[in-house]
C-alpha cells in the first residue's frame, strides 16, 4: 500500500486516522492551510466553499474534512493565519526604535501599516468581520477571534507602569476605533474623514499617557 493510499480512501482506516497527529500529518495540514489562506488573500470570502478550498489546496474536499473539523473550521483557521500576517507586519514596522515611542506613536505606526497593507488582506479581514455580524451563530468566532488576536499586541503598546485593567481598557478603545476606520475606508468613505478621526485618537492617547 503506497503512502498516498489513505487520502484516496478519504480518511477511512485506523492507519490514516493515526497519521494526522504525526509530524508528516501536521506538515500536510499546514500545507493545505497555507494554500487555502493564499487563495482567500487573492479571492476573498464572498463565494468561499469547501469545493473552492479543495481546488486551491490541490486536494479533495474529503481530505480537507479529515484535516479540519468543518468548512467553518478551515475558514476560521485561514482567517486566523491572515491576521497573524497582519500582526507580523505591524510588529515588523514597530521594531525600529520601539522603546523610544510613546503609545500614540506606536498606534500611529500600526495605523499606517493597516492603511497601507495589501488590499487583498484588508478586504478579506473586513469581510470576516462582516460575516460575523451577518450570521453570528455560524461565524461569530471570526469576530471574537479578531479581538483575541489583536488585543495582546495593543496591550503591549501601553506604558509598562499602567495597571492591567487600564491597559486593557485603552487597548479595547484603540481596537474599536481602528476597526471603525478600516470599515469606513472599506465602504468607500472619504479618507480625510478617517485621518481626521485618527488624529483625534492620537490626541486622546497623548492625554491618556500624560
TrEMBL record:
Residues 26-86 form the HTH tetR-type domain. Residues 49-68 bind DNA. Gene3D superfamilies: Tetracycline Repressor, domain 2. The keyword DNA-binding applies. Residues 15-25 have a biased composition (Low complexity). SUPFAM superfamilies: Homeodomain-like. One of its GO terms (molecular function) is DNA binding. It comes from the Bacteria. InterPro entries: Homeodomain-like_sf, HTH_TetR. Keywords: DNA-binding. Residues 1-28 are annotated as: Disordered. Residues 1-10 have a biased composition (Basic and acidic residues). This is HTH tetR-type domain-containing protein. It comes from Amycolatopsis saalfeldensis.
Amino acid at each position: 500500500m503506497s503512502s498516498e493510499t489513505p487520502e484516496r480512501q478519504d480518511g477511512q482506516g485506523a492507519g490514516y486516522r493515526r497519521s494526522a497527529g504525526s509530524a508528516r500529518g501536521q506538515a500536510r495540514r499546514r500545507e493545505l492551510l497555507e494554500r487555502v489562506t493564499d487563495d482567500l488573500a487573492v479571492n476573498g470570502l464572498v463565494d468561499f466553499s469547501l469545493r473552492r478550498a479543495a481546488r486551491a489546496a490541490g486536494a479533495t474536499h474529503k481530505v480537507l474534512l479529515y484535516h479540519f473539523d468543518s468548512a467553518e473550521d478551515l475558514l476560521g483557521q485561514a482567517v486566523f493565519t491572515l491576521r497573524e500576517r497582519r500582526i507580523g507586519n505591524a510588529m515588523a514596522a514597530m521594531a525600529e526604535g520601539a522603546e523610544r515611542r510613546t503609545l500614540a506613536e506606536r498606534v500611529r505606526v500600526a495605523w499606517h501599516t493597516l492603511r497601507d497593507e495589501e488590499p487583498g488582506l484588508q478586504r478579506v479581514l473586513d469581510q470576516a468581520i462582516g460575516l460575523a455580524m451577518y450570521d453570528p451563530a455560524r461565524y461569530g468566532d471570526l469576530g471574537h477571534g479578531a479581538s483575541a488576536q489583536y488585543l495582546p499586541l495593543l496591550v503591549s503598546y501601553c506604558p509598562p507602569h499602567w495597571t492591567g485593567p487600564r491597559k486593557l481598557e485603552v487597548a479595547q478603545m484603540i481596537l474599536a476605533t481602528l476597526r471603525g476606520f478600516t470599515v469606513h475606508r472599506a465602504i468607500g468613505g472619504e479618507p480625510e474623514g478617517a485621518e481626521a478621526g485618527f488624529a483625534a485618537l492620537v490626541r486622546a492617547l497623548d492625554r491618556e499617557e500624560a
